[in-house]
Design brief:
By secondary structure, this protein is mostly helical. The protein has a domain of 227 residues. It contains 32 helices and 2 strands. It has a two-stranded antiparallel ribbon with strand order 1-2. α1 packs antiparallel against α2, α1 runs parallel beside α3 and α9 runs antiparallel to α11. The longest helix has 37 residues. The relative contact order is 0.05.
């Protein structure tokens, strides 16, 4: 038989045996010892295992083939699913799962009915969740890489999977499965199932929890694909931009309704947050004698968190587009997506992803007031503010699996794909709270939009931003948990994506904040910008070395990598240099910082390496300026030079704030490339410019658009930096 015929054969067995199991289980009579029933269970489980093996082969063929062959392989799999009625079968099973979970939970139900329900769930549930994932991925592959005719075929089937009538019961089934594991973990439930003998409730629990871990990944993948295809529909159908509340195109409105009504994203977030169950001191599903890999739970939840963070980021952007199209938050679809993004489980996930990022950067746990309780309840979400996955990684080392994440790097290199994970974590937390996805909206509309209700207080956001930027710097320097990022060269995704460094720039808040907020937040805003600048100049240095060419190892395929643009390496440092000029416009005029606060802030900025970052930024800017004027300059060099044009002016303003010491405690220059290094760099540049001016004068160069005129502004800016720096040095010496 051909591979397609083999898949079709196993699918028919899976569907037919599953239907028989459902029919035979619909009784109060205990079927756990029934020979015919057990044979059906065995046939169903064997078909599922065979299909999973076939699916892995399909995945290998798709990854290792060109796009055309990959699409053909995907279409073969899809056609087998269509021929065997997989989608209607999935719909039937998903609608059945919540009612069967209710049987297991119902202490008044007959023991036979409860046993039958639990056994049915542990057989058909894993199959349904797996087949949904195994159908979504090839469909998405065809939509991404197929020709117009192939895409049309895939879209027809996708329309069924993305319809409200399918997505609502699917999400309900995932949520019910979480409850199923919680009920089975209760001693009273297991005792009732095992009463009289002949039933192994612990084995049932182990299988259920293993399925929950996979279900978290499958539901997250479903949410990510649905969210991405929502944006595809918005692009295809177009949105009215009249600024009025015009109705959404039907395909867009239908998918918004399906996502909102199903709560698929919050369901996936809840499954991710649920901590591993512990029975008699043994973590389930792993334990002595249990054939389940010790770290499998953490690996699958790690992968699920990645998928959900992508979905959240995509939905943030989709909501911003709807706000822009309708001109207000009352525009169609805005409130529905807003409810998804503000759900308590999604809000809790934002915080714990930031916690995990900090742990990956080897930072100490944050104080409780900066954490958040992942609000608990019947679905078993953790009450503590520290995510169980973070706690495990701190104790046992980071959990990453490139096979699950899709980035097969045999060198063990975490650069690129782990950067992508962390970049998403920042965008859906700090970025969401501060509305960075709204930055493309008209300023008057943006000013009318209130911060998300789930956003922490401004001072907490400021502290978290500084902490996150520090963690990222540590990661990029190879100081992270388990050596991440490394051992390969980083991709610098934060610097190459226009919105990724925005969460560390608080210029907009500073211009509108009341005095009390400014007083509390300004030190943390500056610290965040200082760490962000350190990150940005590292990326800029790499870009200058490569003359703007992408890193040759940038092959992991992360979404944010494909959105990276050349020239953005200069945008980040320039933006953060501007953010660090806040003291000259706010601190010295509106905010009176006590000597203690100034001393603490100076220490924070020094620890963030601000002096060294300023020195390096200035040297890199001068290098780019010279290259841009030379024959054979690249497009990136000319673009970067234009972006960094005001870097000397920003540096001068920062020096003028006198927040960084020029001298060490003994009067010597601060070591490690401190602010004194900036003066040396500026002095060398001034000397070089002076020589150029002298040469032009000797050559008889005139005014107007001559080489001499071009040197006037850069010379003025460098002299300004020197003047402010020496003034700060004089003041520091005077106070000693």
């Amino acid at each position: 038989m051909t591979s397609r015929q083999v898949v079709t054969h196993h699918l028919r067995e899976l569907v037919s045996s599953g239907d028989v199991i459902v029919k035979l289980s619909d009784t109060d009579t205990d079927k756990s010892g029934d020979g015919a029933m057990n044979r059906r269970f065995q046939a169903h489980d064997a078909a599922r295992d065979a299909l999973y093996e076939q699916w892995e082969q399909v995945g290998m063929r798709t990854r290792n083939a060109n796009k055309g062959v990959g699409v053909a392989v995907s279409l073969d799999w899809i056609q087998s699913c269509v021929d065997t009625g997989v989608v209607p079968w999935l719909s039937r099973v998903f609608k059945l799962i919540p009612s069967k979970v209710s049987y297991v939970q119902d202490g008044a139900a007959q023991q036979g009915a409860r046993r039958n329900a639990a056994s049915l769930l542990n057989s058909c549930g894993p199959s349904a969740f797996m087949m949904l994932a195994c159908l979504l991925d090839p469909l998405f592959n065809v939509v991404a890489y197929g020709d117009a005719q192939q895409q049309a075929r895939a879209q027809q089937l996708l329309a069924l999977l993305l319809a409200r009538d399918f997505m609502v019961p699917a999400a309900a089934a995932f949520h019910a499965w979480t409850l199923f594991t919680v009920y089975l973990a209760l001693p009273s439930t297991r005792d009732a199932l095992e009463a009289g003998g002949g039933y192994d409730a612990i084995r049932c629990l182990v299988h259920a929890v293993g399925t929950r871990c996979k279900g978290a990944l499958f539901s997250a993948r479903y949410a990510q694909i649905a969210s991405t295809l929502l944006v595809n529909r918005m692009n295809t159908c177009g949105l009215a931009t009249s600024g009025t509340a015009a109705p959404l195109p039907a395909p867009v409105a239908e998918l918004v309704d399906a996502l909102s009504s199903s709560g698929l994203v919050p369901v996936a977030a809840g499954m991710i947050l649920q901590p591993p169950l512990v029975v008699n001191g043994v973590p389930i599903p792993w334990g002595p004698g249990i054939p389940y890999p010790k770290n499998r739970t953490a690996i699958e939840i790690h992968a699920a968190a990645r998928e959900v963070s992508i979905a959240m980021n995509v939905l943030q952007g989709a909501r911003a587009r709807l706000v822009g199209a309708g001109g207000s938050t009352s525009a169609p679809g805005v409130a529905q997506l807003g409810r998804l993004l503000e759900h308590r489980k999604v809000a809790a996930l934002r915080h714990v992803m930031l916690q995990r990022l900090a742990a990956h950067g080897r930072l100490q746990p944050q104080p409780p007031e900066e954490g958040v309780a992942a609000e608990g309840g019947a679905d078993g979400a953790e009450d503590a503010y520290v995510w169980w996955l973070t706690r495990k990684e701190v104790q046992d080392g980071p959990v990453t699996d490139r096979g699950i994440t899709g980035f097969d790097d045999r060198t063990g290199n975490t650069a690129g794909w782990l950067e992508d994970d962390h970049c998403h974590a920042v965008l859906v937390s700090l970025g969401y709270w501060r509305g960075t996805e709204l930055r493309e909206l008209p300023p008057d509309l943006r000013r009318r939009l209130a911060p998300p209700a789930s956003a922490p207080p401004p001072e907490v956001i400021a502290r978290l931003a500084a902490r996150t930027a520090e963690a990222l710097c540590r990661l990029y320097h190879g100081q992270g948990l388990g050596g991440a990022y490394g051992p390969g060269a980083p991709e610098w995704l934060f610097a190459r994506n226009a919105g990724a460094l925005v969460p560390f720039d608080f210029s907009d808040e500073a211009s509108a904040a009341p005095e009390a907020e400014l007083q509390a937040c300004l030190p943390h805003w500056l610290e965040a910008a200082a760490w962000g600048l350190a990150l940005g100049v590292e990326a800029l240095a790499g870009a200058v070395e490569r003359r703007g060419v992408s890193h040759p190892n940038a092959t992991h395929g992360g979404m944010l990598l494909h959105e990276s643009q050349l020239g953005n390496e200069a945008t980040g440092p320039e933006r953060l240099l501007q953010a660090l000029t806040l003291p000259s416009s706010h601190a010295t005029r509106n905010v009176k910082m006590s000597s203690e606060v100034r001393a603490d802030l100076s220490a924070r900025l020094r620890r963030a390496g601000l002096g060294a970052s300023l020195d390096r930024a200035l040297r890199l800017a001068f290098t780019v300026f010279d290259r841009a004027e030379a024959p054979g300059a690249t497009e990136w060099e000319r673009s970067a030079a234009n972006i960094l044009m005001d870097a000397p002016f920003s540096t001068a303003s920062i020096l003028g704030s006198q927040l960084l010491p020029m001298l060490g405690p003994t009067g010597a220059a601060v070591e490690g490339g401190g602010v004194s290094g900036v003066l040396v760099t500026a002095a060398k540049r001034a000397s070089a410019l002076a020589r150029q001016l002298e040469e032009l004068v000797e050559a008889g160069a005139g005014g107007g658009e001559t080489p001499m005129a071009k040197l006037v502004r850069p010379s003025t800016l460098v002299l300004d930096a020197l003047a402010r720096g020496f003034f700060a040095l004089r003041e520091e010496l005077r106070k000693r």
